[in-house]
Amino acid sequence: MPAAPTPRTPVRTALLVLVVSVTLSLLLARAGVPSAVLFGSLVGGMAHALTSSTPLAVPAVAFRVGQALIGITIGTLVSLSTLAGMGDDLGPILAVTLGTVAISLAAGRLLALRRDVSAVTGSFAMVAGGASGVVAMAHDLGADDRVVTVVQYLRVLIVLVTLPVVTAAVFAPDRGVATLRQATAPLTHDLAYVAIALLAGLVLARYVPIPTGTLLAPMAVAAVLVSTGWLGDVAVPTGLQWLAYALIGVQVGLRFTRASLASITRMLPVVLVLIVAMILLTGLMGVALAWVTPVDGLTAYLATTPGGLFAVLATAADSGSDVTYVTGVQVFRLLVILLLTPLLARWWGSRGQRGR
After folding, report:
1. Cα–Cα distance between 129 and 333 in angstroms, integer?
2. How many angstroms separate the CA atoms of 243 and 252, rounded?
3. Region 1-6: what's the mean pLDDT?
4. Do 62 and 93 sit in the same domain of this protein?
5. Do residue 46 and residue 180 come from a single domain?
6. 101-110 residues labelled b (16+ CB within 10 A) or e (exposed)
7. Higher per-residue pLDDT: 221 or 354
8. What percent of the chain has pLDDT over 90?
9. What pLDDT is stored for residue 354 in this prediction?
10. Are residues 227 and 94 in the same domain?
11. What 8-state DSSP symbol labels residue 3?
12. Containing domain of residue 163, as a range?
């Protein structure tokens, strides 16, 4: 039998989590792994949870700040002018978006056939898009955020690995055609933007009780600020994004146990099959979008990839695709998914109660 976890002093506990999180985050970032800080912090939390019986948790207020910062980061992408630019293609884009959601739910339902995966956990684990937002909301909505985190970012990783291969082999675009737009506002404006969105969003979430309001309310405030252009072309400073990912990652990692880790490891073969199937089916969605709209095949493919938003946008810019169109479709799907997840959680919860 494996040795039981041993106690550890609070100082040694904090030091272990910090050292593992920072070291692994830097290594993963250097290797180009997406959301490297979230991954590194996840492992940092696990390093303590799996080796010691000393309790440790991220303070509730810090976790809420992490959720809010992720909401603001997502809200920064939501430009009303970009969404409005989708124009006459809104019908096909909506159909493709709902089709992707349906594929995700079907994959989640198949994953939930396992006895160790609930329906809500399966749905959130397989839903395509908004990985950081879905992970940040998962625990609040009754899903197992450990499973959701591992599966969501495994899908993102597979998308990123296949993206350049498919782009080069199928479409063979010219390279280095354009660059992504960078935020141009000074740091003081960026910090003011984050502070206003954070405070106003948390107040709104407190007095307008909506599911997952800690993420959605700051996201809404951020989207309004970005769309008005009041503070200029703002963005969330990288350090604050890292802080948000670290708070979420450590919190999820600290919930791991040896049994839960073994359970997740056993389900990985099934998860890999489902992810590959999702990528193929969403690729067909891209073919359909190119068929019914004037956009080219590469733009449609990039617009419908199930994850890896920033890498997708960088590829779109570098290959000469319509970056605005890709951004609009990807962000539209992200918003639909983040707004639907609370409703899905409530629906699965009511079905579970009726079943019992």
Report:
1. 7
2. 14
3. 54
4. yes
5. no
6. bebbbbbbeb
7. 221
8. 36
9. 46
10. yes
11. P
12. 57-355
Q: Which one-letter amino acid corresponds to residue 216? A: L
Q: Is 262 exposed, middle or buried (CB count within 10 Å of its CB: 0-12, 13-18, 19+)? A: exposed
Question: Do 3 and 147 reside in the same domain of the chain?
Answer: no
What are the two backbone dihedrals, phi and then psi, of residue 52, each rounded to the nearest 5 degrees? -145, 150
Could you tell me how many residues make up the chain? 356
Pick the more confident residue, 319 or 162: 162
* Shared domain check, 62 and 76: yes
Mean pLDDT of the 118-122 span: 90
C-alpha distances out from residue 346 to 14, 92, 101, 143, 328, Å: 36, 28, 17, 11, 28
CA separation for the pair 7, 350 (Å, rounded): 40
Query: What is each CA distance from 116 to 139, 147, 264, in whole angstroms?
Result: 16, 10, 9
Same structural domain, 33 and 174 = no
**Torsional sign, CA 303, 307, 310, 312:** negative
Residue finishing a domain among 13, 31, 56: 56
- If one counts the domains in the chain, the total is 2
Phi, psi for residue 6 in degrees, rounded to 5? -100, 155
Q: What pLDDT shows up at residue 166?
A: 86
Token pair 């997708």: residue: 312
Q: Which residue has the higher pLDDT, 2 or 262?
A: 262
Question: Is 353 a residue whose pLDDT tops 50?
Answer: no
pTM over 0.90: no
The gap from C-alpha 198 to its chain's centroid, in whole angstroms, comes to 19
Domain boundary, last residue among 16, 35, 56: 56
Angle between helices 213-228 and 60-75 (to 10 degrees): 40
% the chain with pLDDT above 70:
92
Look at residue 207 and tell me whether its pLDDT is greater than 90: no
